Amino acid sequence: MISDHYDLIVVGGGNAALCAAIEAAEKGCKVVLLEGAPKAYRGGNSRHTRNFRCMHEGPLSVLTDSYGEDEYFDDLMRVVKGKTDESLARMCIRASEACLPWMEAHGVRFQPSLSGTLSLSRTNAFFLGGGKALVNAYYRTAEALGVTVLYNTEVTHIHIEGRTVTGVELRHDDVTTTLPGSAVVLASGGFQGDIDWLARAWGPSARNFLIRGTPYNRGVVLKDMLDQGAQSVGDPTQCHAVAIDGRAPKYDGGIVTRLDCVPFSVVVNKKGERFYDEGEDVWPKRYAIWGRLVAAQPDQVGYSIIDSKSLELFMPSVFPPIKADTIEDLARQLGLPETKLRKTIDAFNAACPSDPDGLFHATELDGLATTDLTPAKTNWARPITTPPFYGYSLRPGVTFTYLGLKVDETARVHGADGPYNNLWAAGEMMAGSILGQGYLAGFGMTIGTVFGRIAGQEAASHVA
Ligand SMILES: Cc1cc2nc3c(=O)[nH]c(=O)nc-3n(C[C@H](O)[C@H](O)[C@H](O)COP(=O)(O)OP(=O)(O)OC[C@H]3O[C@@H](n4cnc5c(N)ncnc54)[C@H](O)[C@@H]3O)c2cc1C
Predict the structure, then answer these.
(1) Is residue 255 in contact with ligand 1, taking CB distance under 6 Å?
(2) How much is the mean pLDDT over the chain?
(3) Distances (CA, A) of 79 to 35, 218, 292, 366, 446
(4) How many A from CA of 113 to the centre of ligand 1?
(5) What domains does the chain contain, in order, with CATH numbers?
């Protein structure tokens, strides 16, 4: 099935890889796409996504109103806190507007934004059928354009002579072979699937982290490129992590394992002690810090406790909560010290405002705060007194790592002495060039689409 020479070798099988492959194939290139995962698991983290963030000067497809470059850039700056390359970021933002019609023309369907969680109808376009449907549509399009797709094909090494890539080493069905190519696009994600690497970067506690996405993003090509002198971007010790249901699988739990109950709860560690203000801000602005907070607790685990007043206030969880008629029974079922949890809940209840019900507003900062309690709960502080009581265990769930390859506006990868002649990168692999820290919802798919398309176009011009 493998021919002996391709114009373009695309490494990876998620959104960024597919955008690159489609662009290059449309420009007449002979393209092979090498996906490390088996076919059933193709599509990496992209298959877990729901939306992408898109600039638009007026209503566009399912997007309402307008979302201009400056507002988009300000939103980005708020999360990266200055750690970005402004010209690259602005270029990506501007290019996002043309991406939406391009995506529709290549098989992606959109739907109006989901209501209830985050209010995103103006800024983020939601994929009908989610990222899985997007990935499937792109595979169909790529194959119709003649792209050869190889599954179970892990790239282990990039062959480079001087500043020119000559081919890639790959393992397929336990056979290692070298595939020559005129150009290569790297789009094989971060390294969060490699728990040993995470533990080296973060410390041994990382072994208890759960990985929200694919186990196949193990950073094999990223490490190979760094070992060969490619310039890196992003903090190697950092990853994006959120608090997810402690019962989620080690890998690939996806979006449904996220828990949105924290602001209406008290969160304790395994000793039954509170450790942070659960009501510090609205949940979309705080969910991303709870991964780290839980990671800093003994055994990297937390427990979110609510009573029946709050059960309907957040998106239902995929695993039902642990339920009990008393706090002591809940503690027993969760494996928490009963007396200590009782004391923590009593102290919290005593510190809550005495008649909060008329003042409580689930969807805005209501200022219902505890008094004389450390740490304070500064919003939504209502006593936990109405049985049944419910509890969820929490663990840090890693979304992606930040370390990546430095690229320029043409998506070209840079080595120690300047850009390589025929090597491009797209998606999570280079996202650190723009996202130095933090995360802006929907921007991962924007970066992958914009830079995937550029990488495919640039590679095609190079080959031509
Ligand atoms: C649960 C979850 C929800 C998310 N929701 C959103 C969202 O709604 N919107 C958004 O913008 N972002 C979201 N993100 C982030 C988003 O998934 C990423 O930014 C995006 O998918 C990155 O695309 P990519 O193509 O770079 O990587 P991926 O889609 O992860 O693709 C990497 C590919 O490389 C393959 N691969 C890895 N190593 C090798 C190798 N050595 N050889 C060959 N192949 C290899 C993998 O199998 C995979 O196919 C979410 C992430 C998670 C985990």
Answers:
(1) yes
(2) 94
(3) 32, 26, 16, 24, 16
(4) 21
(5) 6-234+402-463 (3.50.50.60), 241-397 (3.90.700.10)
